[in-house]
Amino acid sequence: MPLLDWSPSLQLDHPEMDQTHQAFITLLGQTERALAQGAGPSALAYWAELVLHTVGHFGQEDRWMLATGFAPDNCHSRQHAQVLTVLEEVGRLAADIGDFRPMSDCLPGLAQWFVGHVQSMDAALAAHLQQLGFDPSTSTMAHPPAPDHVPMSGCGGNQCTPAPQPATA
Fold first, then answer.
1. 78-122 tens-digit pLDDT
2. Which backbone phi and psi does 91 adopt, to 5 degrees?
3. Domain Hemerythrin-like: where (predicted)?
4. Does the pLDDT at position 166 exceed 60?
5. Nearest to 4 by CA among 23, 28, 20, 21
6. 158 within domain boundaries
7. pLDDT-derived band of residue 45, with 50, 70 and 90 as boundaries?
8. Residue 2 falls inside a structural domain
9. Cβ proximity of 86 and 150 under 8 Å
10. Which residues pair with 140 in a beta bridge?
11. CATH number of the domain that 78 lies in?
12. In this structure, what are the phi and psi dihedrals at residue 70, rounded to the nearest 5 degrees?
């Protein structure tokens, strides 16, 4: 049984994001199957393809965030960078010294992280893009942020932006 299958709970009703997320899940499954058949060149090739896809996947979301009013150093983009750092290091260990254990150990956590990320940060991003009428193919917005808009440093959801604190007397 695969670590992760596409399900309605992952659908964001944002065609580009949903398609990219489905491709991620497919690559995750291919990597998982290759590792189950034995660590080696096949597993490494699928891992490299997963990492390459993820670089593009996160880059696309990061560009959309910047184009729609997020600060360059927002928590959603920082999380992308952290995950890529881990994926690249795991791939390096397998390629350079033949240590596939981190890859095997990483896959279940990656699948679990992905579900939470899609359902929180990516769901908030999809809602933000929809609210602005953002067209990903042209990067135009029907309802752009106001000129005096303060760039968002949070993720657009409640996962990383602290709740406002009541004023003290």
1. 999 999 999 999 999 999 999 999 999 999 999 999 999 999 999
2. -65, -40
3. 16-126
4. no
5. 28
6. no
7. very high
8. no
9. no
10. 135
11. 1.20.120.50
12. -85, 150
